[in-house]
Design goal:
Alpha-Beta Plaits, 133 residues, mainly beta, two-stranded antiparallel ribbon, five-stranded antiparallel β-sheet
């Protein structure tokens, strides 16, 4: 299990999301150092109701672990989409340059953590692809 860090991976973001809106949403939990929109994630696993789960994902770096912990333990909804959050080590997320079809989420790189989502949407699965536009 990955230890708590000040870095969160955020999944199931709305299609029209922008980095500034993510920053505005998460700053209520503490000072946000950096937000990086990673692109669309398509999950090969289906959700509990049989639908494919997809959406944009991003990383949020807080200035301290306490802020990241508060954000991770809260429920997040943007545009009627329940977001998922995972702790991650920065090296576990592929960079934009290296994130061709082989990219994966923190959960797909051996990560074993929990999700703050309260809906039936699971955390990112082992088979995920990022489509950067």
């Amino acid at each position: 299990m990955v230890r708590e860090t000040r870095h969160l991976w955020v999944g199931n973001l709305p299609d029209n999301i922008r980095e500034e809106r993510i920053r505005e949403h998460f700053k209520r939990y503490g000072r946000v150092q950096n937000v990086k929109l990673l692109g669309r994630m398509e999950n090969a696993n289906a959700g509990a109701n049989g639908t494919t789960i997809s959406g944009f994902c991003a990383t949020v770096a807080f200035m301290d672990i306490k802020s990241a912990s508060k954000a991770h333990n809260a429920e997040h909804v943007l545009d009627e989409r329940t977001l998922t959050t995972e702790y991650y080590e920065p090296a576990a997320i592929p960079s934009a340059a290296g994130a061709t079809s082989a990219g994966s989420s923190p959960a797909g790189s051996g990560y074993s953590g929990s999700s703050s989502s309260v809906n039936s949407a699971p955390a990112p699965a082992a088979i995920a692809r990022f489509h950067l536009s």
